[in-house]
Structure formats: C-alpha cells, structure tokens
Amino acid sequence: MRKVSIAPWLAGAAALALVASPALAEDAIHSPLTENDVVVGAAKDAFIQFIQPGVHPYVAAGNEGFEEEAKLLGLTNAYITHSNFDPAAEVANIENAITKGAKAIIVQGVSSEGMVPAIEEANAAGICTVAVITGPGDKLDEVYPGMKAYVGWNEYEGGRYAGEALAEAMGGKGNVVIIQGILASTSATARQQGAEDVWKEKYPEIAILAARPADYDAAKARGVMQDFVQSFGDRINGALVITNNMATAAADVLVGTPLEGKVPIVSYGGQKDFIDYTRDGKTYATTPFAPKSEAAQALDLAIACINGDTTPVYFSETDLPPVKALKDHGYVIKPDNVDLFTPQW
To answer: Which residues share a beta bridge with 179?
Structure first.
C-alpha cells in the first residue's frame, strides 16, 4: 500500500499527493488500479467531467477504469462524454462542462492545438484540469501551464522504444511502411517522430517507403495495408503502426500472402489481441499502455486538486502498476516477455 506525501514533479519520478496528512490517512481508500490511497474529501459530490475522444476499444477500457474508480471512491457526480473524434465537439464539451460548473475536467484529446483556448478558459475559471495521453499544446515532457496533471507516455520516448524494437527485428536495415493515427493528435505524430529519429541516428539503412493515416480505425488500417502490399510487395521489410487495433488489422492483411511471417509489425498500446498475435508470431512488439489505470490515475489527481493540491504532476505511463513490470525490458512487450504484462483492453 503506497502513501504519497505532497511534493512537486521531479524529472524521472512520479510525485503524487493524494494523502495530504497522516491524520487524513485513516479515511483513505486504497485503489487497486493505481495503488494510491485516496482521500475523497470535497470531491465526493463535485461535478467531474471526463471527455473522451470517441468510440474506440482503448477508450472503452478507459471508461471502465474511470467508472470503477468513481464507484470505489463513492463519487456521486462523475460523468463521461465523447467528442466523436471531432475537434469542434471536443471544444464544445469542455465549454459545456465549464458552463455547468465542473470542479474538474479530465480530457483525452482529439486535437492538441484545437483544445488550447477551451482548456485555458477552464484553468482561468479555477477548474482542475487533467490530460490523459493527448493533452493541449505541443510540449511532450511537461504539464500544460495551468493544468493539474498529465497522465500517460512521453509519446516521443515511447516512439523511440518502438523504433528501436522494429530496427532490431529488421536486422538494422530495410524498408518500412507506417500506418498513422489522427494527424492532429500530438501523441500520434510524436510516436512516429520518435521512431524515425532513432532510425536516422542509428540505422541509416532503414528507409520509409510510405506513411498514411488511418485515424485509429481498424477497417481503414486494413485498407491502407492492402494498398501498401499492392504498391510495394516484397519491398516491405517492416511496419510501424500507431495503435494496436490498426496493427492487428494490418497483420491480417498479410495472412496468405508471400509476406506472411516476413514483415515484423511494431505498434503502441498493449492490447490483448495484439499480444496474442505476438504469441502467434503475427506481430513483433508493442509499447505497453494501461487505459484503465490511466483513467483512474487521472481521476485520483483531479480529486487531489479539488481538495486543494494544485501542484502540477507529470505522471508517466511507466509508473502505472501494469507497466512497471516491464521496466527491466525497456518497456516493450516482445515474444520473450509477453507474460509479464496484464493487458487492460
């Protein structure tokens, strides 16, 4: 059981203030999803709005984590809404929460730049704001000014891990195709940039044949991979796919073709289906994500803020309980360590 005292975020370590004092610790509730001891206090009946980007398996797992944590903590006024992957709807959802008197807004963003004015409006109104995975602005290693917290990967760093894993699987040379996510999302573009920078720095014989977005949609990813196979055939030596659900769809395309078993696929997400594909040799590696724990951690931080702890916290994905298990493996799931990670989606 972890009790954490009040402290600022320090680079390379997660500092979280959820138990404000020993006197309050008696009333703390222990969370299995986050391993935090949470004092609910003034947050019990506070309006807390979680704004998700849209309908997606990863988002659904985050919803489950948020709802489980809210139920465990006895919150009476915590809600989830979706933006349908529409930046304008995202802004409208944030503004609507402000108008309705939200005490905290948690957002997993659609458009990193598009949400900035609305988040700044919420901050100016004294609302506790927390970002999950994709936050406002283009800074990847800090909490956006005025916000309480960010929970998730430094996506550029995660991209480097994935890029290194793909280079390893390709023997340090060959041609890569990339299936992108939503290009307006800083997290998606940072993953790709991290991988590309590793190749430029260490693997000059790796070249990118093509990169196309599929908007986190498995059906679109299947179509993109089919186009790549038709266009490039056996020139493809590896594939980087920005999310796991798109990666398994891409892997399915290769079944029954001359490329089956010859093109390592590396991705991001830690999804159960992807991990099962890795066991079967259809995919090679992924960075791990824990959407239920992310959402629960974000809620815990929002509660701390409502209770007066406004110290900014950058909470790395690597400090979430399921992900910490891969510390000695470079935070990458591969065929030799798949059993170390328990997927949450």
So the answer is: 212, 241
pLDDT tens column, 69-92: 999 999 999 999 999 999 999 999
If one counts every other C-beta atom within 10 angstroms of the C-beta of residue 92, the result is 15
Rounded Cα gap, residues 265 and 251, in angstroms: 7
* pLDDT score, position 95: 98
Any bridge partners for residue 48, and if so which? 78, 104
Establish how many alpha carbons lie within 13 A of residue 71's alpha carbon, considering only the half-sphere containing its beta carbon.
8
Q: Residue 325 CB: number of other CB atoms within 10 A?
A: 16
Residue-wise DSSP of 243-300 = SHHHHHHHHHHHTTSTTTTTS-EEEEE--HHHHHHHHTTS--EEEE--HHHHHHHHHH
CATH architecture designation of domain 22-153+290-324: 3-Layer(aba) Sandwich (3.40)
Q: Which two tokens stand for residue 324?
A: 């910490």
**Tokens at 256, concatenated:** 């029954």
Predicted local distance difference test score (pLDDT) of residue 188: 87
Please report, for the chain, the start and end positions of each structural domain, with discontinuous segments joined by +.
22-153+290-324, 156-288
3-state secondary structure of 42: helix
Q: Which helix (H) or strand (E) holds 174?
A: strand 174-180
Fold of 156-288: Rossmann fold (3.40.50)
145 contact partners, CB below 8 Å, separation of at least 6? 123
CA 116/CA 137 separation, integer angstroms = 7
And the tokens for 63? 């919803």
Q: Per residue in 189-224, pLDDT tens?
A: 999 999 999 999 999 999 999 999 999 999 999 999
- How far apart CA 21 and CA 227 sit, in angstroms, is 59
pLDDT at position 14 is 34
Residues of the chain with pLDDT under 50: 1-26
Contact 50, 68 (CB under 8 A): no
* Measured distance CA(141)–CA(314) in Å, rounded: 8
Q: Is 152 exposed, middle or buried (0-12, 13-18, 19+ CB in 10 A)?
A: buried
Contact 264, 238 (CB under 8 A): yes
